[in-house]
Amino acid sequence: MSKMNLRMNSFKIKEVMQRNTHVVYMYLxxxxxxxxxxxLDPDFLSMRNINNLILSSQPIFIVSCAQMIILLMxxxxxxxxxxxxxxxxxxxxxxxxxxxxxxxxxxxxxxAVGVLCGLMNGFLITKMHLPSVIVxxxxxxxxxxxALFACPVPGGKVHNxxxxxxxxxxxxxxxxxxxxxxxxAIYLVASRSTFGMKVxxxxxxxxxxxxxxxxxxxxxxxxxxxxxxxxxxSSIFLTSQMRCADATVGNSFTVNSLTVAVVGGTxxxxxxxxxxxxxxxxxxxxIINNILNLINVSSFYQYVIQGLVLIFALAISSKRKK
Amino acid sequence: xxxxxxxxxxxxxxxxxxxxxxxxxxxxxxxxxxxxxFLGIRNVGNILKIASFIGIAAIGQTLAILIGGxxxxxxxxxxxxxxxxxxxxxxxxxxxxxxxxxxxxxGAVVGTVNAFGxxxxxxxxxxxxxxMGTVIQGIALLYSKGAPxxxxxxxxxxxVNEPKIFGFTTWVVIFWVVLAIMMIVLLKxxxxxxxxxxxxNNRTTARFSGIKINRIIFTCYILSGIFAAVTGVILTGxxxxxxxxxxxxxxxNSIVAVVVGGTxxxxxxxGYGGTIVGVIILTxxxxxxxVMNIPISGVMIAQGLIIIVMVYVYGKEKAxxx
Lengths: 322, 322
What we know:
Chain A is mainly α. Chain A has helices at 13-19, 21-40, 47-72, 80-94, 104-126, 132-150, 160-166, 174-191, 194-204, 206-211, 216-242, 251-263, 275-294, 301-321. Chain A has a single domain (13-321), classed as Orthogonal Bundle (ABC transporter involved in vitamin B12 uptake, BtuC), CATH 1.10.3470. Chain A has 14 helices and no strands. The two termini of chain A are 32 Å apart. The mean pLDDT of chain A is 88. Chain B is globular. The relative contact order of chain B is 0.20. The mean pLDDT of chain B is 87.
């Protein structure tokens, strides 16, 4: 394809807001949540708490970016949570906490595992022509089984300096840098690159995209591999937080990544969505959990709230499309 | 083949591929080799009893998949019903009627909400049922306050566990056989069944031929919820108590059974006859893996692989070209 001018949309405030009404409403909702949280806990807007918020929403943010890319393509990835668990297990098991650079090899291998998992998804969906829903359900079981097999009970130790660095406690504010960097990177990839354009084209109308010369197979394969890569990054961050291996750690991330992506304005039918919504969505989810903790609500309500948020966000999203 | 009524009847009932029968034969032979005495009458009765749990849950899953959807909330409904049944019966036979009516209503309500989101809000079934399942999971935890308690009524335990029928099987198996016959007749010989297949094959064509799509989708998901609830009751009778993990495998197992049984994951082809064979194959497989001391992780991997292989094998002729 010739190099098209991808900056076809204007950046005027009013027009941006008109194009992204869902995201605007979502940020209004986020503002309300922040105000409510601030009332319940005056320390909510302190630097320390904001830092905690960034730390806790980082993993879900990264994995929801992965889910967003897959959703843009019109597919779904239900194995992201299991990839997180598998990468976590591989990372910790290979780790040599005593050696100064004992995290390098495990890091490379863990990321490679994540990418391989994603590529496996992509391969089954493209080369074997299987629907993405059933494939990712099946691979979710396979990856989860592998993780459980390697690590039946939680345990293990992580490299101290490395995890402190990831958490921003080693002098360099890594988490905020990572979040900003990830935001910019995903924005460029999903909304301002040829790849992103092709992904959205496949999500909009895959046959039309095929007739314009886009290789559907290559795009899907790359997208799923990218999703696996992002899931592994999310898992590395999560591992540095948890400081141990737990095969089931990723279980809630699958549903949560869907919730965050949908709340953030990504349509399940494909082609619509962006990282500005996803980051807002991840903050909303985290702050809702925060608020539930602040008002001393039983943690069991979190399941109910999460499910209801997902269903409501989907309902609003579908009504908006009409 | 002679076009007489007997052959046509057999053809109608079997519906799906003969491949399933071959796999079943192989499983039985393999099981007998690995576990001597497997085909003894007492063990067969036991296998049938265990199979009936998945079998009844798979009725709903078959319906949901046949109309082109899926039901991931079955696990959570089974767990909720298990917890509620134990807590409401508290080992007293007089509580049975109230308990049964309550849980049947719960199953129907879950199915109604699922169908409502799927039809009116056009939410994809996979996400709608996952979201609803999460809500049910939260409700189950809240109801039991994290500590499931209570016992099943003695009559229920007797009906499920005592091998008195024909000397080797229990009332539950008879119950399953009756339901199975009703299901097969419903799907293959009634207008309702034909409409289900029509909707699964091509929803637009079905709508244009006057079929009331929404009504049929509602029926299928409500039935799925009810049968999941029935499975929960029977499971309570089997174990005697409640557990937060009671229903954990049922969504996955029912999907595997339906897929192995030859029903197309996209809907419109297959039937409950195949699912029955799939259930038995899955039960035998689980049995073999348990006897070989393979941990739950191995079972998960095996199920994932089976789904992929079966969907690929059955779907080969319908592969798209791009």
